[in-house]
Amino acid sequence: MWGAIEHLGRDDRTRGYLRDAWSPADLELRQWFRQEAARRGLDLREDRNGNLWAWWGDPSERPGVVTGSHLDSVRQGGAFDGPLGVVSAFAALDMLRAGGFEPGRPLGIACFTDEEGARFGVPCMGSRLLTGVLDPDRARGLTDDEGDSLAEVLRRAGRDPDELGRDTETLGHVGVFLELHVEQGQDLVHRDAPVGVASAIWPHGRWRFDFRGQANHAGTTRLEDRDDPMLPFARTVLRAREAAERGGVVATFGKFRVSPNNANAVPGLVSAWLDARGGEETAVRALVAELVEFSGAEVSAESWTPVVDFDVVLRERIAATVGGAPVLATGAGHDAGILASAGVPSAMVFVRNPTGISHSPEEYAETADCHAGVTALATALEDLCRS
Ligand code: GLV
Ligand code: MN
Ligand code: MN
């Protein structure tokens, strides 16, 4: 399976992945998912928000046990964030079938749409729409860097954007959700464990800062006559780092756009995106409030995800089932967190990442650890299917 998808959306210059939601690479990955489902005789359903579900058994009779993840990537991302969970889901199902397992309840494999929010700015778009925490009108109007709205992009991909929105029926099919994911830190390295189980996801969000000034000639405009928005932006980046250290949180300006983007012109507009996260919501909120005040920019909140504490009984049960795996918190967002917040009992299994690097082509997991992840996933699914 890995060999069939590793070239899709890969930038051969950098080895990084460009798998924006609804891009040609993403559409090919979705097609691959359909084929893998068909090869196994699973019943493939696409919900009104573009999420894909491959079912063994009928979840309208009884809510099922679901596993899976996403196939889109951040820009220049790694191979594992998302796809490891989907490939492992199919592999775990194969392992269970090879052992003669017959599920006592439906078993589903999910592929969530646009988890990263690389294209339209809102992460976990598919699960947020499914659960109703994202307003479909707002989603339809979100635009990508080309200025194309999600509604237009969906129409071009042959979908009806008017269908977007909370999908109670599909959500009702998910009795429990278990997402396997590459670890995006080095906790498991330090604990000398190939797999772990998630305890919590930090509260996190994204904010857009627009710094406005006056575009002008770089040679003829005296310094004292300039209104250069690059300067407050630069000061705000430094302040974000300082405030994060002071507040015990993390803050990142990882994306910005300069307009008009000429080497020989003072810019007229700098738009920049702040990603802020931390163990305590109040500390994250305080950092954002400080930067809004300090920057003088026009600021709009693009997404917010409150803290997620995964179901304690479920996570302890899975940790015990897979052989006493360590339980750890993460600063990364996941569809499992969105489902958990919507009341679906959810859990996550992490696979060790030797360097901890993620959202980068350097992201990695050893094959033996990936196999340990599949075994852990199969064991946990088997146990969950019994209840
Ligand atoms: C998703 O990977 C995120 O945490 O941004
Ligand atoms: Mn990611
Ligand atoms: Mn992910």
Q: Roughly what percent helix? A: 25-40%
Unreliable parts: none
Rg computed from alpha carbons, rounded to a whole number of angstroms: 22 Å
The pLDDT mean sits at 97
Class by helix and strand content?
alpha+beta
Cofactors, ions and other ligands in the entry: glyoxylic acid, manganese (II) ion
Strand content: 15-25%
Give the CA-based shape.
globular
Number of strands: 17
- Gap between N and C termini, in Å? 30 Å
- Largest sheet descriptor: 9 strands, mixed
Spell out the helices and strands N to C: HEEHEEEHEHHHHEHEEEHEEEHEEHEHEH
Give the number of helices: 13
Oligomer type: single chain
Question: What are the salient characteristics of this protein?
Answer:
globular; 4-stranded antiparallel beta sheet; alpha+beta; binds glyoxylic acid; binds manganese (II) ion; 387 residues
Description:
The strands form four sheets. Strands 3, 4, 5, 6, 7, 8, 15, 16 and 17 form a nine-stranded mixed sheet that branches. Strands 11-13-9-14 form a four-stranded antiparallel sheet, covered by helices on one side. A hairpin with a 5-residue loop joins strand 3 and strand 4. The protein has helices spanning 2-5, 24-39, 83-98, 125-131, 136-141, 150-156, 168-172, 187-190, 230-247, 281-295, 312-321, 335-341, 367-386; strands at residues 10-11, 16-17, 43-46, 52-56, 64-70, 107-112, 174-182, 195-201, 204-212, 216-217, 250-259, 265-266, 269-277, 298-305, 308-309, 327-330, 346-351. The protein is built from 13 helices and 17 strands. With 387 residues, the protein is of the alpha+beta class. One manganese (II) ion binds next to loops.
